[in-house]
Amino acid sequence: MQVKISEFLKEYTSELPETVLSGEIFKLTYTEKLDSIRFHARFDDVVPSDDVFAFEKAMETAIKVDQVRLACRYPSEKFGMECYGELIKLIKRDIPVVNGFLDDADVRLSEGELRIRIVHGGRDILDKFSFCLSFSRMIYNQFGVRIKVLLDGESSVSKEQFDEMIERIEADMPDYSDQLIPDKTADEIKQEEMKSVIPTATIDIGALNKEFDAESAEVIKGRAIREKPVPICEAVQQLGEKTVVVGDVFASELKEVRNEKTVVTYDITDYSGSLKVKIFATNKEVDELKLGSIKSGATVLVSGKLDYDSYARDIVISANSLIKVKRIPKMDNYPEKRVELHCHTNMSAMDAVTDPVKLINRAAEWGHQAMAITDHGCVQAFPDCMYNMPKNFKVIYGMEAYVINDIEREMVVYGDDDRSFDDEIIIFDVETTGLSFRNDRLTEIGAVKLKNLQVVDSFNTKVNPGFHIPERITELTGISDADVANAPDEAEALRMFMEFCGDKPVLVAHNARYDTNMINQVCTRQNIDFPYTWVDTLVMCQSMLPDMGRHKLNLVAKQLKLGKFDHHRASDDALMLAKIYIELIGRLKTERSFSTIQQLNILVDEIEVKKLKSYHFIILVRNQAGLKNLYRLVSLSNLEYFYKKPLIPKSKLIEHREGLIYGSACEAGEVFQAMLNMRDREYIDSLAGFYDYLEIQPIGNNEFMVRDGVARDDDELRDFNRYIVEMGDRLGKPTCATCDVHFMDPKDAIYRKIILASMGFKDAEEQAPLYLRTTEEMLAEFEYLGDEKAKEVVITNTNLIADQIEVVRPIPKGTF
Known about the structure:
Elements: E1 3-4, H1 5-8, H2 18-21, E2 24-30, E3 36-42, H3 49-63, E4 67-73, H4 84-94, H5 98-101, E5 106-110, E6 113-118, H6 123-128, H7 131-143, E7 148-153, H8 159-171, H9 186-195, E8 211-221, H10 232-235, E9 242-257, E10 261-269, E11 274-282, H11 283-288, E12 299-309, E13 314-328, H12 356-365, E14 370-373, H13 382-387, E15 394-404, E16 413-414, E17 425-432, E18 442-451, E19 454-462, H14 471-477, H15 481-484, H16 490-501, E20 506-509, H17 512-526, E21 533-536, H18 537-544, H19 553-559, H20 570-592, E22 614-621, H21 624-639, E23 642-643, E24 645-649, H22 650-655, E25 660-663, H23 670-676, H24 681-688, E26 694-696, H25 703-707, H26 714-731, E27 735-737, H27 749-758, H28 775-781, H29 787-803
Parallel strand pairs: 3-4, 6-7, 11-13, 14-15, 15-24, 17-20, 20-21, 26-27
Antiparallel strand pairs: 1-2, 2-3, 5-6, 8-13, 9-10, 9-12, 10-11, 12-13, 15-22, 16-21, 17-18, 18-19, 22-25, 23-24
Helix pairs in contact: 23-24, 28-29
């Protein structure tokens, strides 16, 4: 996102400062309920702090949100002493005690250090509030310059000075007098406290975001709390201030000390962070207030002052008021219920985190008639489900298998040309702006021409894609916008390449389906006819170099000791591939007397089945016979076809299909992958025809495709789902919407994040929302299909599949 503020907010420009309008917004962030929005914008010149505040206030009024923030980015050269005063005004908003202590300070900037000498005292207080770190971070966030901030001068401050400073701070704070409670009788006050403990029915506190039953509120200590809670992750950044938080208790301790007193501590979390609550009370108060009644699992609303506790060595909130509340359990309130057909338990090793019994109990509590358990490659969750099945509920036993298509294998040669190895062959490679065949474009074509297995000519051209080359691609390939500024467009570049290749050539590439598909998309867009036969050296390498685990171009070159090269540059890749091709063809001519390119397809059948590419595949058990067959397939996958993971050949799925229902699975399924690779409609339909139902998922599950450049944006992810729904209608296959559950609730994503991070996944922080959704939530996810179609894929079709499935009992001992 790169858009001028004056364009993005054009209907409000008359109300906004002129200095702000020139900025370019590059990101928007906001809370889940849209009550707080932050504009991230770049400016050429420093915006006065008063204009920043004026912008924020104007936008809060205009778009009616509680809080608007403008996060400014400036060129690093704009940072200097002239910025100091404006930055101090900004940081006062986050650290109010700054107000006054820095007056008349001597400030010097030199060699990456900003030294502030205080003359009115208060250095110890500013240190306590981490002023130096906060100020340094603010400078870096705005200017990208790392400046070490140091405080010198007086540490202490008199009580009179401190009180005066606090008065000045409070004078700048909003007036809440209109919220004061009028005089009431003791009974009225008590009744009011019980009703107003929680300011709203729903409190948005980070990841917790639960509903609370205001009638259940029990004042344990202090009085009613009317302030809105803040997420713990934000609260802990404001030491020394009074705050309100709410969280679940996960540990508690009552420790008696001298003089008949007790220290009570509760560890609480709202899943955005955790915090220790501390209360000092007499032993009598502990009993009277029932402080010992708050155990793990309870939820409390706490008001108090945050500070660092040197004894606990942690940040602690000293509770002035403590309210015990009950959460209203999340329920599925839609009159008709969906069925989840794709659910992983903690038996999906190093991937999912939830106990299977908790999952089926949640579905039963929501009124769902069934749930499918589909762990990756295993069935270990079945016993727990079988013996803990809720009343009037059906567990659908299943598995998400890793399937290899041993029936329709990738060929080495595509096309009818059967020329000799000594005839003219074109070895080529392309570089592109990304991985999407629909949206990305060529940036380079490189090729060499072979005759008698000798390089006789070469070709190379940059290609102007017509739009910005992403930085990550420039980093990978070394090709920048400047390199292609004067290069031919894709149509001209393709014509130049065709002229080099000649009439009806044989093209050779590594993982050729990608390179040829990119060429084919140019042909389609430009209405160019370019007939050719193509050879995939990746499949050749899989057959001829079976001891290698992976067959990427650079790894094959290393294995064959063909020297180093500039990988990810088309001309260098093409030349190295020519060396690999010459080496492999030479072996085939010598060792097996191969002479023409069509003979290369013989190699396909020699590739070990378990080393073929695998796809995800959903298997559901329809009846007792199906359960036996699933167990047979699991045994085969682990005993005969295990390679890095348990694999199942498609031929075995056909052989053991009785009593089983097959689903097309997620984006890693072969139908979705064929769609992404823009295979022709007839081929995709033939794949889909094998399945009993097709599957679509919320677009958040596939958001990684946008980050990786495989999809343009969320709208394209929706288009993928629309394509599958349309295909299902055309083929008479039900399309079912699933969550692909890997954890129970959104807050549980952190556990999967930890698992994936431990395995080295670079995108572990970017967790997909793989949680169990209610019917209402799923209908909202697919509302873009229209109300009728959304209801069909979410409710009607999932229940249709569930209705076909019998209640299956454990297989008696000795069945096999």
